[in-house]
Amino acid sequence: MSIMEKSRPFPATLPTHKLKSPIIKKESKWRNTLIGIVLPLVILLIWQTLSGLKIISPILFPSPVSIAKEFYDMFLTGELLTHLNISVQRAALGFLLGGSLGLLIGLIVGLKKRAEHIMDPSLQMLRTVPHLAITPLFILWFGFGEVSKVLLIALGAFFPLYVNTFLGVRSVDGKLFDVAKVLEFNRFHQITKLIIPSALPNILLGLRLSLGVAWLGLVVAELMGSSEGIGYMIQDARQFSRTSAVFVGIIIFAVVGKLVDSVVRLLEERLLRWRDSYQG
Amino acid sequence: MGEFVLTIHQLNKTFFTDENRTQALSGINLQVKDNEIITIIGPSGCGKSTLLKIVAGLDLDYDGIVLVGGSQVESPGRDKGFIFQEHRLFPWLTVEKNIAADLDLKDPEVRAKVDRVIELVKLKGFEKSYPKQLSGGMSQRVAIARALIRNPKILLLDEPFGALDAFTRSHLQESLLDIWKENQTTMLLVTHDIDEAIFLANRIVVMDARPGKIKGIIPVELHHPRNRAGVAFMEMRKEVLKVLEYAEETSNSWEI
Ligand SMILES: Nc1ncnc2c1ncn2[C@@H]1O[C@H](COP(=O)(O)OP(=O)(O)OP(=O)(O)O)[C@@H](O)[C@H]1O
Ligand SMILES: [Mg+2]
Predict the structure, then answer these.
(1) Deepest in the core among A107, A238, B162, B239, taking most CB within 10 A?
(2) Helices in B41-155 by DSSP H: which ranges?
(3) How high is the pLDDT of residue A29?
(4) What pLDDT is stored for residue B159 in this prediction?
(5) C-alpha to C-alpha distance for A67 and A119, rounded to whole angstroms
(6) Residue A16: what pLDDT?
(7) Per-residue confidence at A35, pLDDT binned at 50, 70, 90?
(8) Distance (Å, rounded) from C-alpha A224 to C-alpha A134?
């Protein structure tokens, strides 16, 4: 809170929001990124050496260099981008569907006690059913086509946003509600100026988790049978024992997942600038 | 009754909990004129906050009559500005947006009002700061600005400076008086601090606990600016203490 500044005499004219020099901040950011790279780099080096010396089987563990070469070849033939494109579309569609429903229903259930009593028990029950258990049912209902894949992803993406939005709405500070009353906020302003901003940290956390689950759901959906997509690419490579292509697929999953997560974190940083919590 | 900004007549308030009933306020009568500053002082638990909440419309469950601007208080509202002990700013809004709150800052009229009130509470240069970047005293001034911009008929302050250090507190008391002079705001201010009560008040309401009632109302006729170390101020302090101690003695005997 404001303890540090409490004993400050009267307002100096200097605005306080630029105390940290941006240059120092940027430098340490770079340093942090560099530190994060060290560990993977060391592992890659060891791996390359072991594989090169044939201490580990190059068939089961193709060396990083040969994986990189495979990656490059698949990129050149356009194979990689075609599959990636399909996968991203599926995940995005499923996420948009499930995530927006989760956000919406989370808001409604959070705002209306009545809605909570009606919906929350059923939703909580559904939430505990694992993905893999539902997959056969979806295949029976919707076949192996796009619909069942997208719905499977949507189902996974729904819950994190639902649960966290609900939680966020319910943890709005009651004292600020009194302020909203005194200032005569109408219902619309109460929601847009108080409830949503206050629930935003939780909503963004839900968003991150939802995106993660959508990406995981994609793997399940594509491994269950498909003719396109990164999941299919992996499955296909396995059949022909192209281990390096399997690795390429895994790496793609990891990189895209991380990329999306970073975008959300950036969004978090921008939207939650006002927060006064421990930054590590 | 029309000439009074606030009229309280035979106000009684009882809290019912599972096994207990607490008479928080008993037979309160008070009339506040336009442009008056009333400070309320009294032992902890004598119902000061309860009284203020009732006037604000935050608590509607009471017996008696409470009129603000001649009409019965039916709900909280902008005409009854409320300053809580903690600033209660929206942490996600900058200073100017906190002050505007549900008003649209893009509206030139609102913009002008916000700028004026920021100047009034001496926060120029901090418009774009977030609450976490402000000191306690500055935050409380933003809260005051947020209430003032809505032109309240009466400003209700519940120990607004209670959480601040002595230095900041006395500075804010002076700011409050400046605002009062410039803006002609009627105020009802609860405090624990006798000096604060004397420094600000046109009249001091001394309350007594169990049940909460008014023990005495002391007019303060010292000229502004009031000198806290002056003889007249000392005399005033003695007078208030006399009423207060009398109040506390009776409240203690009540307990036994
Ligand atoms: N919500 C409540 N339910 C039950 N009793 C309450 C409630 N709020 C206050 N009381 C009781 O009413 C009495 C007056 O409380 P109030 O908060 O108005 O005191 P106060 O004068 O503001 O005290 P302080 O100076 O410590 O802030 C107290 O005895 C308290 O226990
Ligand atoms: Mg109180």
Answers:
(1) A107
(2) 48-56, 95-100, 108-120, 136-148
(3) 78
(4) 94
(5) 49
(6) 45
(7) confident
(8) 12
Q: Which chain B residue lies closest to A14 (C-alpha atoms)?
A: B125
Q: Residues in chain A whose beta carbon is closer than 8 A to a beta carbon of chain B?
A: 1-2, 5-11, 13-17, 175-176, 178-179, 181-186, 189, 193-194, 197-198, 200, 273-276
**CB of B2 within 8 A of CB of B25?**
no
**Residue-range domain boundaries for chain A:** 84-273
Confidence of residue A8 (pLDDT cuts 50, 70, 90): very low
Chain B interface residues facing chain A, Cβ-Cβ under 8 Å?
A: 56, 58, 75-78, 80-82, 84, 86, 88, 90-93, 101-102, 122-123, 125-126, 128-139, 146, 150, 164-165, 167-168, 171
Q: B37 vs A23, which has greater pLDDT? A: B37
List the residue whose alpha carbon is closest to atom 8 of ligand 1. B50
ipTM entry = 0.85
Ligand 1 atom at shortest distance from the alpha carbon of B17: 4
State residue B18's pLDDT score: 86
Is A182 within 8 Å of B76 when comparing Cβ atoms? yes
Measured in angstroms, the CA of B27 and the nearest CA of chain A are apart by 26
Span B83-100, average pLDDT: 94
Chain A residues whose CB is inside 8 A of the B148 CB are none
Taking a C-beta distance cutoff of 8 angstroms, is the pair B105, B136 a contact? Answer: no
As a whole number, the mean pLDDT across chain A is 86
First to last CA, chain A: 16
State the average pLDDT over residues A203-215. Answer: 93
Structure tokens at B20: 């207990």
B67 pLDDT higher than 80 = yes
The pair phi, psi for residue B207, each rounded to 5°, is -110, 165
Lay out the sheet containing B213-219: strands in order across.
Answer: B80-83, B154-158, B186-191, B37-41, B203-208, B213-219
Provide the number of CB pairs (under 8 Å) joining chain A to chain B.
Answer: 100
Cβ separation B92–A197 shorter than 8 A: yes
pLDDT at A24 over 70: no
| Domain spanning A84-273, CATH architecture | Orthogonal Bundle (1.10)
Residues in the ligand 1 pocket, defined by CB under 6 Å: B 15, 17, 22, 24, 44-50, 212
Domain residues of chain B, as ranges? Answer: 80-151
